[in-house]
Amino acid sequence: DWSSDVCSSDLSAALFFCVPDVGQAWFWTASTTTYLLSFLFLIYGIGLLFREKISFCYGFKTVIVFFVVGNSSEPQAVLTILVLIFLFVFYLLKQRDKSTSIPIELLSLALLGMILGFSLVIFAPGTSARSAVFPTISFFEALILNYKLLYILFINKISWKFFLLTGFGLVLGSMIRPTHQAEKRKIIFVLLAITALIEIFQFIITRVISDLSAERVYLPVTMFLICFFIMISWLFFFPRLYLITFALLFCYLGCVSIVQFHFIENYSIAYDKRMEVIRKDKDTSVVVFEPLPSSGLLLSAEISADTNAFPNQHLRMAYHRKFPVLVRSE
Known about the structure:
Shape: globular
Structural class: mainly alpha
Number of strands: 2
Largest sheet: 2 strands, parallel
Strand content: under 5%
Radius of gyration: 23 Å
Oligomer: single chain
Helix content: over 70%
């Protein structure tokens, strides 16, 4: 129906616009199997869990799907394992109360697949080689550093998304009508769980690299923050603000789309001209380009004034050039 279409569209827009860096996050998510495949399998796997009666083939499929999720990004894998453990304990208690029918067997199979896939990543030679590059810190040092990095993460990368997070959360949360007072009280526990999951997610990264990770890694944090604001809106229902916020978001996204079309059009034209020059060049000398215009929310494919930079080297190898290409330094 109409409300379902609006809800799914708002949730998709929230995930797209609320990540710390839209261009980098969605370029990597859409172009690499490490993020795209595991993200798609995670969504598919969540759907598999909502079934009471299971067969051998269905259970085997559940293990395989979550094996793929576990065999991907380490922070995302650990976070998914923690969420599954939380759901397993929660549903197990509900099952003891005989208040609901919960697929405990499917959660067990999902955890099995996650642990098997994650074990392959952790014990792989490449993981050990990569870990050797970063400095080693103790557990307590990582714990203290983690809170400092969380502060930097929220102040420098997420705080300026507060308006969007609040707006999308208010619109999406207002579509859910609270029915029982007891359920509203339980929401506090869920909010604390979301906060703890974000802290654990960053702690895993801190323990490995002693720093913040690339913006693309924080897509799960964005998902948790959206859930946080949806629950706040659900708990404190604001029927009047819902329509106002929906109208403001609609106007904002419309303006952003118009502005981004201008940026992306100019960028794509300049980029196509640059590629055409490279294709037609006789490769007899170094080629120097003017910097590309702003790419807006897209991840820019700009090269550097340093010919040893990775984008420059990659572009040179792609066209089998003898002489390098670079941009004019400002």
